[in-house]
Amino acid sequence: MCLTPVSIRFSYNLPNPVVMHDRFMGVMRIDELCDMVLDRFTPASIAAFRKVNRDFRSRVLEYLRSRHRINRALSTFFEYPLSFRRVLYECSALLSGKFALSFIGRLRWDVRQLDIYVPRYRVDRLTMFLRGSGYQYSPFPGQRPNLLNELVRDWHPIQFDNKSGRPFLCPTERSRGVNAIFRMIKRLDNGRRLTILIIESVDAAMRPILNMDCTIGMNILSHDRAYCAYPIGTFEAKAGLVMPQSEVIDGKGLRELWRHGWRLFDSASPFVEACFPDVSRWLDDKYSYTFDLCTPPNERSLFQLPIRGTWRRLPDPLQVTNWRLRYSSSGLGFMCFSAVVSRSLANFYIIHDESLVRGMRRLFRAVLRDTWYTNHDEVLRDAPSFDTTSIWSL
Fold it and tell me: In terms of domain of life, where is this protein from (predicted)?
């Protein structure tokens, strides 16, 4: 056998950009190849890609509907995921934590815990559904063994620390706007255990989420929409800004994020400020990554309630959520926002925009003041410091 030598010549000349563009456009017009390319994109890249033109936008929306199947993801915890989403809609509750992070980031994690953030006074409806779905109440140390007694116990009204002005989580822990936490557990036949944490907020469900220790956890799922507050920092740069609000820090959660490859920063730098800008933010602005969850037309009627004789959808408080991330003189990051509470409003709201705050002052001044003074007289002695603008300033 005769071997023939073959010479190979490598060329480092890149093709014409116009030719590369045409070839890429040709690839993206093939559905299977387009899905393979989008699978390698980060959420921030997908958000930028769908702004190229109308065709790409429709293709990305179709891709998101096929890849982000919320009912399939929730089927791990519930036999009827759509009924659970209906309860989220009725309670204005939100999903966050590890489940939301893995769902939005398309991370193949085996998540066995669901964190549900609920506005105050709306826990009963959710706990009734969970008990009907096979979950049992598992009290934390210091809590009563009976869930009904725990919901009405003496310390359930908001308690504030006189020094910092922030509310307590439990008698032994500090909070970031959390009134109480309830744990529900379901044991499966295969030995697995599913855990659901119900985090009852002092007011708006978004308040504890914005007051988390790290920006990596600021991913939110409502009943029909997904939000990522910092997609560039979380998924593109694989970084997180740590903002400890008190002496108690979730060290276990931060160590787990570090093991998964995230870099954690606790002070400002050019890189950090580029990923987490100091600007007034809305949850669906250009810095966020949002998309609709897959809801077939025959299921959309489930997210309507009888209001004044007609079937209507409740307003989504997340669409007007407004806050600002600021940096102190020492470079530490902290969140600024106001919580709006009123009997004349269907939901609690988080706002920061000065013009919006002034408008709320003029529109609901008496109502807000009366509501706050009636329910929270014990906190009028001290104004909160550091992270939030109090409701009594409205």
Answer: Eukaryota
